[in-house]
């Protein structure tokens, strides 16, 4: 096949594929252009989740006729002139690809006027073809309309998701830009109804509360500098976290939202040992560095960057965030490897990394251990001791926490009730740890069981003879001359999850109507996703009614969830739905979110059981596939007489 130059319209469509992935991509590019034009008021108007219409109206500088026509040309930009400008980019957009790429796959219009001009300019484009340029009356600023996205690329249009999913992505794109710009007056409408209204706020904290709801209200402002590095952040205090990484970390470099591995690792390291496994802190982190120290010309979508000395920057951010967390409840300082310690005082001839701060004067109350230069890197991010009065997450075999690190008594973990078929046990002595929370795997029909002789020496669990209980955690049984050890928590959890697949309402304890509905506020993006799926909550006994905006009324809930923080529960379910696709995916995510909480009603490690309760557990196990629990841990292990004879040297 001969090599040839592609036709212009095909080149434009390929370029559009790099920049315009979905309606949210259009929203992002148009909002960034408006912010670069100095807009202080912004309106984003959508129809059908942005499929049919995206209109962005701003009060920025506007354009004259020549610039309005020129912006439709590929690589036409007013933001860079020379090679050196690529390393001093201070604007959000600079490539000159967004407008022509969007116009090539939509019915596109621009209406713009400069403040000093008597008339504006109106331009119409369809599928990349310029149809009309004419004078028109217009308010100062720019209005860009993108209709029928991908109308001429049906292969791309068919891959768009549901209206609610696409709308959620559009709201996320707007939220990203608004979170660190509290002075921006913002409104988002969908199908001519106001969906999000954010007037100018006094601070970033107030804007976060407006956009992120309860999670945003709980965030703590943090600011610090390390030489040329400046950090402004809102961070989760201990105990505030989310179930999904999506919508938990908002990372910015010089005002640009990014998905950067260096910053993400810095946040993860800062919270190591603080948040539970499979939970994610809420962090809004803006990093400001000299423009020549960061390369933003990495990806057409401009969401990836590269740093000079990224490893040192990561360590400096981690240390700053850990110091801030320590001030809000974490007592022990973080140990930082020697080469990432704040730079000591030095003579002018000495050279250090640009964002290493000078070492403050040491004091008894502020002294951080300094590791030797060859220390293991892992020790730089060692988990911190728990807060006073909280419980350490540890293995079941862990010993009590040393008294030297405890400044308040440690409370015993709450004992979850057994199902109605099992009598309540007597609580044992309180251990100094709490078993870690478990994360349920997606539920499915029971798989084919293993051959019975691979798990039990007898046909059924009920045929075992209960010998007793070991460490208030393991049920010891005997059958056919062999010892069978059953993990009581894994076993009862497996029974609970199996019942959830068969009869969710019964497994969760049945619905209980609330005398007074509990009102829950969610961020707009998550609220739309949850509102579209509330009917799917009913089979689980969770009765939720959308009340408009981001408000929901919880009118009933299962008995197993009665002690849950309902705001956290609904936010976690919305997070799970945000990662799903169609209806089946939503069901799977919902089962996962509820099952994880339902398993907390299972028998716990450290819970004393009577012989009657242990027998009831064995009978329940006969109903399910018990080879492994939903989290991959064995339910039972067996020790044969041959193994015992070998260990006692009888063989």
Oligomer classification: single chain
Give the tally of structural domains.
Answer: 3
- CATH homologous superfamily descriptor of the largest domain: MutL, C-terminal domain, regulatory subdomain
Distance between the termini: 76 Å
CATH class of the largest domain: Alpha Beta
Mean pLDDT: 75
Q: What gyration radius follows from the Cα positions, in whole Å? A: 30 Å
Backbone structural class: alpha+beta
As residue ranges, the low-confidence spans are 331-453
Count the DSSP helices.
18
- Numbering strands along the chain, what is their spatial order in the largest sheet? 5-4-3-6-2-1-7-8
Main beta sheet:
8 strands, mixed
Give the overall form. elongated
What portion of residues belong to β-strands?
Answer: 15-25%
* CATH architectural label of the largest domain: 2-Layer Sandwich
As for the CATH topology of the largest domain, it is Ribosomal Protein S8, Chain: A, domain 1
Number of strands: 24
Helix content: 25-40%
Layout of strands and helices, then pairs:
Blueprint: H1 8-19, H2 23-36, E1 41-47, E2 53-58, H3 65-70, H4 98-103, E3 107-113, E4 120-126, E5 129-136, E6 141-147, H5 154-157, H6 163-179, E7 185-190, E8 193-198, H7 204-212, H8 214-217, E9 220-226, E10 229-235, E11 249-253, E12 256-258, H9 261-270, E13 283-288, E14 294-295, E15 306-307, H10 310-327, E16 392-393, E17 433-434, H11 452-455, E18 465-470, E19 474-479, E20 482-487, H12 488-502, H13 504-507, E21 511-521, H14 524-531, E22 543-546, E23 551-558, H15 566-578, H16 583-598, H17 611-621, E24 636-639, H18 641-647
Parallel strand pairs: 1-7, 11-13, 16-17
Antiparallel strand pairs: 1-2, 2-6, 3-4, 3-6, 4-5, 7-8, 9-10, 10-13, 11-12, 14-15, 18-19, 19-20, 20-24, 21-23, 22-23
